[in-house]
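Here is one record:
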Amino acid sequence: MMDDATVTTAPLLDVKGVSKGFPGVQALDDVRLDLRHGEVLALVGENGAGKSTLMKLLAGIYTPDAGTFRLNGRELTIEGPRHAQELGISIIHQEFNLMPDLTVAQNIFIGREHRAGGLFLDERALNRRAQDLFDRLGLALDPAEPVERLTVARQQMVEIAKALSFDAKVLIMDEPTAALNDAEVDVLFELIQRFRTPETGVIYISHRMEELARISDRISVLRDGRYIGTRVTAETEPKEIISLMVGREIVGEQRPPAATTTGDPVLSVSGLSTKHLLRDVSFDVHAGEILGFAGLMGAGRTEVARAIVGADRTEAGEIRLHGRPVKIANPAEAARHGIGYLSEDRKQLGVLLERSVRENIVLASLRDYVSGLGFVSGSRIEATGREYVDKLRIKTPSTAQLVKNLSGGNQQKVVIAKWLAKDCEVLIFDEPTRGIDVGAKEEIYALLRQLADQGKAIIMISSELPEVLRLSDRIAVMAEGRLTAVLDNAEATQENLMDYATRFTSEGTIAR
């Protein structure tokens, strides 16, 4: 953490009285924030709290309705993204802004290239500039490598290098570890530590409480577009931060009672295999049950879901619904059989961002709203949209609001509403709370349990072992495309789940 001697009395960045509204929504209301010299300030809040709006104001993407920004005591009028960068404010968005066909160096210095004779791009000079930057930052990147060949973690490093190439004083990082593994997170944190000096500071946005203890000095909380408070990280329990975020106490670590499923299974999968990964996967799911899937990255959890709904081709195996064999060629056919699949990539595969809330809710069941004459009933669509907005407490000014304007947690609720409106009997949730804040997670947890209590058969895939233990009646563990165990929740622990998740070697034999 930061040495107290590096902190000066005047903030590096001072935000006061900032407000911003959009049609039907007051995104920020009289928000304040101060970033000290040399510190990492965590900014947290539920989805829709206003974090992204505030960062976009600082990055020059939006213009504030009211309020002031001061950098080292000097008031700023930020006229656009490039101006913000010139002032020393750089932002690294959660969704990368890289051009895959260009090289690493070209991405970093795009728009600032040196041209030989004023006409032709001087690749050697560009690569030298990039290499000098990498040497200064301690990054092992090849300036000439096309970005499309890089892993997600290395693309993250390119984004950081690009931001720091502007001689940034304030570095804003929005969920920077969302796609990184533990080793890559360690590298990122080392880079942040090297960046911060008595002249610089970092605003770090994250939903991951465990990260904040490692990297931040203070934590500022927004709720419903308002500033709630700031706490010193080392003196504050995560439970207190969560309570500030949601305005209520979150009761964690509950686990479901012992499973009492009886009768025949709703869904039976036997001998499921695919060409490249899955091998002889078999399991059952009963009505009223949540079957969790755990395993390391690449174990095949998502591939099981995709094979069931026909998104991936199978080589062998059988799927039965209520004991009857079914052939499923694609996800639309799965939906007709009453199997709904909520993909981990909700923005690409779950919702139509440019369409309204109500249109998305009826998307999977649109045929039900077409009359015999071929007319679509707008009033019935509105009624259904309003029904599920109310049932799931989707925060939106109206059912006509575009889904892209909703927070991540509310977008996820729209996806769930889509499959509830379809009245699917089997629901497959793949990473249902990825990128969602702790308050919205609690609502999703409660919703999944409510659906199970209503008799739905639920498969829930998650990379977070506490989440799997929190929700699942039984837990299926996968390793390298095989099912290594199915445990009752009562006998499951993080330790034995990890044991079963590492039971196979690369040759596919059980490791003893």
About this structure: The first helix runs from residue 51 to 58.
